[in-house]
Design brief:
heterodimer, A: about 120 residues, mainly beta, 7-stranded mixed beta sheet, B: about 110 residues, about 0% helix, globular
Amino acid sequence: DSGVTQTPKHLITATGQRVTLRCSPRSGDLSVYWYQQSLDQGLQFLIQYYNGEERAKGNILERFSAQQFPDLHSELNLSSLELGDSALYFCASSVAHWAGANTEAFFGQGTRLTVV
Amino acid sequence: DQQVKQNSPSLSVQEGRISILNCDYTNSMFDYFLWYKKYPAEGPTFLISISSIKDKNEDGRFTVFLNKSAKHLSLHIVPSQPGDSAVYFCAASGGGNTGKLIFGQGTTLQVKP
């Protein structure tokens, strides 16, 4: 158990809908990251928050948005869903805002989103 | 533009032998590299890492080698065990003020008893 909790584990929704994925980081971690893994692909970085503020942005679509709340949990909002948004969405957390020794990111189990 | 590449989608080795997983990168600004292991229906689990100022890091059965001039790193598992069967992801960090990681596509390792 990494200590990172993601809900829900599975989500099936129709095209055009909006969903919210939730992530609770490990206790003490201030950074939260969101990654997308499509079929047979590596993990693609979407966005990073550190202590409530956006820290880095990857190839995140404009239809997607995220935020980190004062209690440090994070939500990823996906709207106007398309079939191609079907993927595994992983949340990770780390203690620092940079990557280095003893600051490795720990991943949750992911949310599998299926858009039909 | 795939900045981190794992060119072997799969690898099969016999239990007790060495497993060597390879990873190439293109961005010379990467300064920290990690390997993650992933079992089905689970999130990636951190395995081992190496800073760009080193060329080798060892942790038990796992050793990561970094060749900066070739922009290549490899993960050695000795001896390989059936429980090591998983997908292995190589990842790189560009440093600076972010911890974002750039991942390779993964290599599926099968260790046969």
